[in-house]
Amino acid sequence: MVKTASVTGKPIQIKIFPQRLLQPETAERLLNEIDHVNGVIRMLIGGKNLPRKVTCGPGTGTDVNHPNMEIIHVGDCAFELHVMVGEVIVELEDESTKEELRNACERTLPFSFEFKQGFFIKKKATLTDYGKYGFKSKTDESINLEDERILGLMDPHAKPENSLCVINPEEEK
């Protein structure tokens, strides 16, 4: 998920690793609390994949109706969870809102969690980004993006329309 925010200071990345996999309701509450923290640039959720179809056995090809594959609402965006949320990576504008983010997690999560600062999301285009967006031209090796905050957030197996959720998009002028 990309949240529209202007980057002013040196961005930092925080990994929130709960001691349990999150149910959709808890994940929705956590992501909305994080969304209300000032200075959030982008969020990335990760966890165990929830399959859509049975891949082997007598029911091969039938739909999987997993109870955790729900539509959640974060900010102005609604999307279906395809993972059991096991971690949330948040990029902040600078160190000043780190404690506010920790407090949001403590208010939302009823169990312990790890809160680590580090480098978790790539800042430069990945091979997957090049594959999804292509090159601008043969002479210019940068990719053709309207918003560079989505770099490193692409799932190589996801369809482009299902792989990204933009929260509070900027209004076109």
From TrEMBL:
One Pfam family, short name: MCR_D
Record-level Gene Ontology MF annotations: coenzyme-B sulfoethylthiotransferase activity
Record key words, sorted: Methanogenesis, Transferase
GO biological process: methanogenesis
Coiled coil stretches, renumbered: none
EC number(s) from the headed UniProt entry: 2.8.4.1
Name of the gene: mcrC
Organism: Candidatus Methanoperedens nitratireducens
Protein name according to UniProt: Methyl coenzyme M reductase subunit mcrC
InterPro entries assigned to the protein according to its UniProt record, in alphabetical order: Me_CoM_Rdtase_D (IPR003901)
